[in-house]
Amino acid sequence: MIIADLAEGKTVMSLVKTLSFNAARLNMIAQNVANSETPGYRTRHLDTKGFQKALRTALDRQDRQPGRAFVVRSGREVTTNAAGFLEVTPSVEPAANILFHDGTNMSLEQQMSDLAETGMIQDLATTLLRGSYAGLRKAIRGRVS
Predict the structure, then answer these.
(1) How many angstroms separate the Cα of 71 from the Cα of each of 2, 55, 67, 80?
(2) What is the pLDDT of residues 43-78, one digit of tens each?
(3) What's the chain's Rg over C-alpha atoms?
(4) pLDDT at 5
(5) Which strand (E) or helix (H) includes residue 44?
(6) What one-character DSSP code corresponds to residue 67?
(7) How many beta carbons lie within 10 A of that of residue 6, not counting itself?
(8) Backbone angles phi, psi at 3, to 5 degrees
(9) Where does the pLDDT of residue 102 fall: very low under 50, low under 70, confident under 90, or very high at 90 and above?
(10) Up-side HSE of residue 139: CA atoms within 13 Å toward CB?
(11) Separation between Cα atoms, residue 76 and residue 136, nearest integer Å
(12) Start-end of H helices in the chain
């Protein structure tokens, strides 16, 4: 029971959900960049602030009701399916102030900025999860080294 709590605790689950969200966001950014020359293409968007707020809500719910499924929901973009996996559906980003002559609304600079931000969050979450699993391995082995 203790090992299961450590392996499936709210910290680990929040890191796993963060990794899933960021993987979907990286895929979406790659699709946006790949379609940069496609006339009429509108960039896809995932609301990171909305996801972070939904993750915070799920963590708070877990504090109030431990043992319940760790469910993250953020509008139509992010939901947790029956198996507990995160499902992410990017929305079409509305045209801001600029709509280019070919009907696209993509700013390559914005995509690269989003890529860098998502990559840093992904690296951080991976490092934290790796550390959590290393601690779990030490606990199972019963020794420090």
Answers:
(1) 21, 8, 12, 6
(2) 999 999 999 999 999 999 888 887 788 889 888 899
(3) 18
(4) 55
(5) strand 44-45
(6) T
(7) 16
(8) -65, -45
(9) confident
(10) 12
(11) 35
(12) 2-7, 10-34, 48-64, 108-141
